[in-house]
Amino acid sequence: MPGVTRETLADAHRVVVKVGSSSLTGDDGRLDVDALRALSDVLAARRAAGRQVVLVSSGAIAAGLGPLGMTGRPRDLATAQAAASVGQGLLMARYTEAFARRGQRVGQVLLTVEDVMRRAQYRNALRTLDRLLDLDIMPIVNENDTTATHEIRFGDNDRLAAIVSHLTRADALVLLSDVDALYTAPPGVAGARRIDRVTGPQDLAEVRIGGAGSRVGTGGMATKLDAAAIATGSGIPVMLTSAANVAEALDGAPVGTWFAATGSRKNARRLWLAHAARPNGRVVLDDGAVRAITVGKKSLLAAGITGVEGEFDVGDVVELVSTDGLVVARGLVAYSSAELPPLLGKSSAALRDEIGHDREVVHRDHLAVVRHRR
Ligand SMILES: Nc1ncnc2c1ncn2[C@@H]1O[C@H](COP(=O)(O)OP(=O)(O)O)[C@@H](O)[C@H]1O
Ligand SMILES: N[C@@H](CCC(=O)OP(=O)(O)O)C(=O)O
Q: Which residues are noted in the entry as substrate-binding (predicted)?
C-alpha cells in the first residue's frame, strides 16, 4: 500500500514540500541565501529525476525585515503585511536565481483561503498549478499575505501546505522546519525523545507541544500537527524534518517523524471548516440538535439552539457545542450573534411569522462534524 512507510517517499510522484521561515533565516532573523540555495539544489535534483515538486515557502516577512531595518517579526498585521509586500518579491528573486543555477524555472503562486475554498477559484488555482508542472516549472506557493485579513487567512503555511497537498492530490507532504523531528517535548526539555512514527492521535497523547522556536516562525509545532492531521486524514502521509535533512527525507531515509495516512480524500471545504478555519464564536445545541447534525446529517435550525457565545457575523465560522462542552461541529453561520438570540428555540413556522423566513442557522453544506472537547 503506497504511503505506509517513509521509504515510499523515494518513489512518490508528486510531493508538496513546505519550508518554514525558521529554515530560511539566519540568527539575525533575515533571509539566509545559502540555506535557500541548498534547498533549491535538492528540489531541482528531484525534479531532474522526473518527479514533481510543489514548494510552499514562507519567508516573505523575513525577507522584508532587512530592507525595512527590522530584526523581528512585526506584531501588528499591517506592518507584517508591509514586510511581506517588500519581501515576497525579494524571496522569489532569490529562488529564481537559486533554481536557475540548476536549470530549473519557477513560478510564483500566491493563494488566499478563498482561492482554495471556493470551487471555481480552487479549480482555477489547480489548473494553474497543473499547467506549471506540465511546463516543468516549479510552483512556489505562499499565502497572499498582503491582502489576507485576520478573520480569513491561513496565517501559517503549515495548514496552507496541507490543503495544497490535498488539492493537488500529492502523494506526500514534507514539512521542513528548524527542528529535525517531532519530540516528546519542546527542544531544551530534558529527556525529550524523537518520535519516529505517528499512526494516529493515540501516538500524540503524551507529546508536549511548544510555540515557535525562532523569532520569525509562526505557530510552532501545533500548526505542524494540525497540518499533519489535515493531510493524513485525507490520505496523504507526512514527513516532518529539518531543511538540513531534506535530501535524506526525500530518499526515504530513517530521519524525522513519519505520519502515516489515516483517512481517505475529503471535500476541501469541509476540510477547511474542520481544521483550518478560525472560529469566531459558539452556539450551544440541545441533544436533539446534536443528533440531527451528527447522525442525521441535517442542517442546524434555530429550534435546537440553547445559547450563543461570542460575537460573529453572517458567514463567520462558529463552533457547534453540546451542552456538556463537546465541540461537535464547525460551520458557516447564516445569522449574526446579534440577530440570533431572539430566535433561539423557535420553530420554523414561528420564524416565518416573525422574520418572514426560516433559513437554517448553519446549512449542512457548510458544516463539518469534528467532535472534540473544548
Ligand atoms: N514537541 C516538539 N517537538 C519539536 N519541536 C517543537 C515541539 N514543541 C515546540 N517545538 C518548536 O517548534 C518549532 C518549529 O516551529 P516554527 O518556529 O513555527 O517553525 P517554521 O518556521 O519552520 O514553521 C521548533 O523550532 C521547536 O522549537
Ligand atoms: N506567509 C508568511 C509565512 C507565515 C508562516 O507560516 O511562517 P512559518 O511558520 O515560518 O512557516 C511569510 O511568507 O512570511
A: 58, 145, 157
CATH of the domain spanning 6-272, picked from 1.10.10.60, 3.30.420.40, 2.170.150.70, 3.40.1160.10:
3.40.1160.10
Tell me the ligand closest to 256's alpha carbon. Answer: 1
- Per the listing, cell 457547534 goes with 320
Please give the Cα distance from 277 to 291 (Å, whole number): 23
pTM of the model: 0.82
Report CA(145)–ligand 2 centroid distance (Å): 9
Per residue in 38-61, pLDDT tens?
A: 999 999 999 999 999 999 999 999
CA 18 to chain centre: 11
Q: Where are the alpha helices (DSSP H) in the chain?
A: 21-24, 33-48, 60-65, 77-100, 113-117, 119-134, 157-167, 220-233, 246-250, 268-271, 287-294, 348-355
| Cβ atoms of residues 238 and 232 within 8 Å | yes
User: One fold for both 6-272 and 279-373?
Assistant: no
ipTM metric? 0.96
Residue whose Cα lies nearest atom 5 of ligand 1: it is 186
Q: Tell me the CA–centroid distance for residue 31 and ligand 2, in Å.
A: 12
- Which of the 8 DSSP states describes residue 273? I
- Residue positions counted in the chain: 374
Q: Which atom of ligand 2 sits closest to the CA of residue 220?
A: 9
Kindly list the domain boundaries of the chain, sorted by start residue: 6-272, 279-373
Assess contact for 4 and 212: CB atoms under 8 A: no
**279-373, which class in CATH?**
mainly beta
Ligand 1 mean position to 179 CA, how many Å? 6
Q: Which of 345, 340, 347 is nearest to 361 (CA)?
A: 340
Ligand 2 pocket, residue 61 CB under 6 Å: yes
CA of 212 to the centre of ligand 1 (A): 5
Residue 373 above 80 pLDDT?
Answer: no
